[in-house]
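[job 4471] stage=fold_predict status=RUNNING
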Amino acid sequence: MATGSVDGAWPAVTTKVTRRLVPYLFLCYVVNYLDRFNISFAALEMRADLGLSDAAYGVGAAMFFVGYVTFEIPSNLILARVGPGAGSPG
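[job 4471] inference complete, writing structure tokens
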């Protein structure tokens, strides 16, 4: 197999993957941000309406950060191992 055919296909593949993944990942990021932002506003009335203590509210708010903690540390470890160029298109 000639390396020229693989090198020539790389820009097309990265463009296709980028066009499919980036809008979805952006939407996920926006939803995550809105969830984290709105939970602080919801706390003002939610604790009184539901009769939650400060500790119970803290546990509920911490649930939004589980995904962040779960994926942020391993992604940084992988990034340190393979370098930033491995996942960057272009």
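[job 4471] summary: The chain has a mean pLDDT of 78.
[job 4471] exit 0
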